[in-house]
Write a structure and sequence with these properties.
Layout (H helix, E strand, L loop, with lengths): L2 H5 L7 H31 L2 H18 L6 H7 L5 H32 L4 H10 L7 H12 L3 H25 L4 H4 L1 H4 L1 H11 L17 H29 L1 H34 L4 H28 L1 H9 L7 H8 L2 H16 L3 H23 L3 H24 L15
Helix pairs in contact: 2-8, 2-13, 3-5, 3-6, 3-12, 3-13, 4-5, 4-7, 5-6, 5-7, 7-11, 8-11, 12-13, 12-18, 13-14, 13-16, 13-17, 14-16, 14-17, 15-16, 16-19, 17-18, 17-19, 18-19
Length: 425
């Protein structure tokens, strides 16, 4: 049966969005197989201590990298046709400025890590990864133009190609050089591939006659999106720093494994769902219709994700020792708990896409702050009991914020769905 066969049964207007998500899901299915093999190889050739060092480096890298997402690309997606050229011209300059500043911030973090905390190995790796920010800008405008045009299959292929190559490099390096460098270095080695593929998929050069939009044109979305992305990164990375500080590097390796094996699959899928949903909703000009489209999409996503997440959690005791080896069998309970975190993450991705399409990113940011406090606070409280309780605290902290808000937002009447905080641009 073909995709077109199923498309005729879908609500009108949703075919393109679901086709875009199908492209991401297909790419994710391939990358998940490679990632699964990669995790197995890493688990068999490294120790929790090595994995813990890599986790520290990559967690800090992800925390710093979020600063590069300041709503610049999202402004391209929601731009009108008349202002698009000027917006893209200014976005190009802002991308270079932003990435350069972030590279300097990461070098500063690396220096602090070495001089104050004595983590010289992680500091050197973090400093090396700062070069990624000098490789990204030439492809950023192109990526967001692809998203604006609804060419999600192209962006999915680009992301999947980089991720697959990352995992292949990791597996090869781990086998011949079983150190934390083998896990960290591929992030830098594959960055040029992403940029080259983006430029090839969507050729673009600045339209000089259009001039540059004022920086103020980006201000409406920048603050809310940046703060929201910072909260997302903080929830996804600071938990590991807390676990490492309270339980030590070896237990951090166990938690890092459980996070990736348990939450990693659902996290990448729901993130892809939010990426596809945002430009889909941005095309809808009427607020009432946008809510209807969002509700349809969320119902589709729930029908897909809820059974998947439940099965992954319930079956963890069976597949963890088989896939990852007996050394990780005791981590199955942690994997089962972390897998349930996919449910609030699905709610968060849906809400984020909806608020950004409404240009009310400030609401998303406030919700993200509440969820971050709840998740990390729950983790800290649970850590006073055990690592298992810490995992439960983290998952439940996100759930009590995102799930009730999603239920409230997507069951609201269309006429009252938008917040008075809507930002005009």
């Amino acid at each position: 049966m073909t995709r077109s066969y199923f498309a005729k049964w879908l609500p009108s207007g949703m075919q393109s969005m679901i086709a875009g998500f199908a492209a991401y899901a297909s790419a994710e299915a391939v990358t998940r197989v490679i990632r699964l093999v990669s995790i197995i190889v890493i688990a068999r050739f490294t120790s929790p201590a090595i994995l813990g060092t890599a986790a520290l480096t990559l967690s800090l890298f992800e925390l710093v990298r979020v600063l590069a997402n300041a709503g610049i690309g999202q402004r391209i997606i929601v731009a009108s046709d008349q202002e698009l050229d000027a917006i893209c011209n200014m976005a190009r300059r802002l991308f270079w400025l932003c990435c350069g500043l972030v590279a300097l911030v990461q070098l500063g973090v690396a220096a602090v890590l070495a001089l104050i905390f004595g983590q010289s190995d992680a500091a050197v790796m973090l400093a090396v990864l700062s070069a990624v920010y000098l490789i990204m800008p030439p492809g950023l405008v192109q990526i967001f133009l692809l998203m604006r045009e609804g060419r999600m299959a192209a962006t999915a292929r680009i992301g999947a190609s980089q991720t697959i190559l990352d995992h292949i490099f990791t597996m090869v390096l781990v086998v011949i050089w079983p150190t934390a460098w083998a896990i960290v270095l591929p992030k830098l080695l594959t960055a040029p591939v992403w940029t080259l593929l983006a430029r090839r998929a969507r050729p673009w050069t600045p339209h000089l006659t259009a001039g540059r939009a004022p920086a103020a044109a980006f201000r409406g979305m920048a603050g809310g999106i940046l703060l929201s992305e910072m909260m997302t990164a903080l929830r996804a990375q600071a938990d590991k720093l807390i676990v490492g500080a309270l339980f030590g590097t070896q237990m951090l390796g166990v938690y890092y494994f459980a996070f990736n094996a348990g939450l990693g699959i659902a996290q990448s899928l729901v993130t892809a769902f939010g990426i596809v949903l945002f430009p889909h909703l941005s095309k809808v000009s009427a607020a009432a219709q946008r809510l209807i489209e969002a509700r349809r999409a969320v119902m589709f996503g729930a029908a897909l994700f809820v059974p998947l997440i439940a099965a992954q959690s319930a079956l963890a005791p069976f597949y963890v020792p088989v896939l990852f080896g007996d050394n990780w069998a005791n981590s199955a309970s942690y994997v089962a708990i972390m897998a349930l975190g996919g449910l609030p993450l699905f709610a968060a991705a849906s809400l984020g896409a909806f608020y950004r399409a409404n240009q009310t990113a400030g609401v998303e940011a406030k919700l993200g702050i509440a969820a971050t406090i709840a998740a990390l606070g729950g983790l800290l409280l649970g850590a006073q009991i055990s690592l298992s309780a810490a995992c439960w605290g983290y998952v439940l902290g996100m759930a009590i914020v995102f799930l009730p808000r999603a239920l409230r937002e997507f069951s609201a009447r269309p006429a009252t769905s938008l917040s008075p905080e809507r930002i005009t641009t």
